[in-house]
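Re: your question about Ferredoxin--NADP reductase

S., sorry for the slow reply, the queue was backed up all week. Below is exactly what I fed in.
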Amino acid sequence: MTQDLELYDVTIIGGGPAGLYASFYSGMRDMKTKLIEAKEELGGRTLIYPEKMIWDVGGVTPIRCERLTQQMIKQAMTFDPTIVLGQQISELERRADGTMMLTSATGERHWTKTVILALGRGVLKLAKLDIEGAERYEVGNLHYTVQELEVFRNKRVLISGGGDSAVDWANELEPLAASVTVVHRRERFGGHERNVKRMMQSSVRVLTPYAVKQLRGSADGKAIEGVSIARVDAEGRLSEEAVWLEVDAVIVNHGLRGDFGNIVNWGLEMGPWDIRANEKLATNLPGIFAAGDVAHYAGKLHLIAGAFTDAALAVNSAKLYLEPDAPAAAYVSSHNAIFKEKNIALGVAEEDA
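Result:
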């Protein structure tokens, strides 16, 4: 049954920041590695915000998300892992010898000794604007992601949302757009405090607690010309009274909805949006580890930098699961012989390699 399949030391499910760094770090641990991503490209959640500036990765000066994604992918390929795209893993079968057989929703099989779940928030789908007929404007000026900032130059922009993305785009567009208005159904914003403060002190018009109630389309029905907003009461109900705002573009940042698929039925200890793990990123199932946004443990840090640490800890735990006498962690790259030839190839003097 398995003679046509290669057995891997570790199979990483998920190709976002945690999965990509796990792919790199498992190479440092000399593990035969496979990475499986449900989408047709690597990057995970970072693909949604290609123009967003990332400031909080250690040792990296402010960088466009698209560029950071490219660099993470390049790093992940350092030790030539096997990459599988377009497969969402569904089934897990634990075999008598302790190895595991993973099966995708479309029937492909993958044989592995350990698994690292780097699922992020699952297969992500943007939460759409819950207003009848809104979808007709998605080919016009209703946006759920921002691909090019220049599209909004000298436009009257309304942003609906209160998380990091809404706040970040408000700050990015404020010097570019004719005007930026942010409506949020709660009094407090969920973005990073520094960015919220910057928004509040800028020319951005902030209306809370308000929510979008209606849309008014252009004569040809292709674009939004006006947005009706209404106050939200303590029970989440919209007021009968509404205010109309003229707009040239609407950006909706209502978050993401994730789908873990059949993995929720594997017997993992789970919360509503995550998998419970211990301080070594081990789940309650032997040989299965978690990393990144999907992993929940005491002291969890939801940053890309935190995802990198999760990934390394999960890989180390997987290595020790397979080889209990192995070193607890990989030697740092500056003293790791595995990089000697790679350093020479990069033109680094051998005495410095």
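The mean pLDDT is 92. The longest strand covers residues 109-117.

Happy to talk it through on Thursday.
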